[in-house]
Amino acid sequence: MDHKVISLRSPHLILAGLGAFEKLGPEAKGMGATQALVVTDKNVIDSGIGKKAQEILGKEGIGVEFFDRVIPDPDVACFETCLEMAKKQKFDLIIGIGGGSSMDIASITSVMLTNPGTVYDHFGVNLVKNLGVPTILIPTTAGTGAEVTPNAILTDTKAKLKKAVVSPYILPRVAIIDPLLTVSMPPSVTSSSGIDALTHAVESYTSNNANILTDLFAKEAMILIGRSLRTAVANGNNLEARYDMSIGSLYAGISLANAGVTAVHALAYPLGGTFNVAHGIANGLLLPYVMEFNVLGDIPKFAQIARFLGEKVDQLPLLDQAYQAPRAVKAIYRDLKIPQSLTELKVPREGIPDMAKAAMNVTRLMGNNPRAMTVQDVERIYEKAL
Ligand SMILES: [Fe+2]
Questions:
Q1: 192 C-alpha vs ligand 1 centroid, how far in Å?
Q2: For 322-359, what is each residue's pLDDT tens digit?
Q3: What are phi and psi of 309, to 5 degrees?
Q4: Which residues are near ligand 1, the ion (C-beta closer than 5 Å)?
């Protein structure tokens, strides 16, 4: 029996499935929207998804303007340019279409239109006072879970660190998850975003904040991602694999939103902030090393992770079952051919002490880790990953 009080927060409405994108028009109309700002990037525009959104919204008489200058792992300056545009007209709906970057910029823009001060005043937990302009978030990748999480992340270029605005007001009114939008994703993005989703599932499942409801989502996410990530990367047109990845990412996002992530994300932040390593790649690289360290913090759960990822472990002693979990993740990586060392990513050994200190400062996530970590532990994990 779990003695914790269970809580689960999510958007007012989640629409997920093949063709769900078509519901954007009626939903926006139902929200009373007349003029929407679509926050996105050049790739989404080039793929034709932006134009399709405009058509769907146009049918309902809703006008559309585009901010299409979102960059990967966006910084504060990127957000400020978007906010400037959002202030020029009266938008009653903000729609984020793309990866986590576009969705996060859309969410932060929404709340910074209705809250005084600058974004720097809102980095942290529950510092947003007022509800933002209504948002709809639509992922075109399968991984970040940003459409269902109350965190939006920007790079603070001055502090060389990723910073998060964490607030229920970051959650959208509506999240629309359509696997068809992910079909054009290239294999490299499919694998890095898919690994991010796998990291969300593993970390939230083993978080000190997990509860029996988040466990349901995390478990299903691991099963879906474990069976379909390789295929989605190898054959992007395989709709079943795309479906599994989109729904797996959604489930992992719901679990992450409520149970939190742990040391992997904390250790990944300085890689992004200082060395510009993409979020999914940084997480992916560190995940098996942190898992190896964490096994002793929750042996039964790591044994379950091995099962969810398809390992046949029933005949093994429990501890061996648990250590099979990081091995299962490494086996996925071998098939995906993703970077497996910090050296490959041009992160030097000399950078480790500063990165370890920065990671320890992400106390919001370190506190969720199932095994307590010292700064020396963190340094050792980075060294193993060199
Ligand atoms: Fe993530």
A1: 10
A2: 999 999 999 999 899 888 899 999 999 999 999 999 99
A3: -85, 10
A4: 196
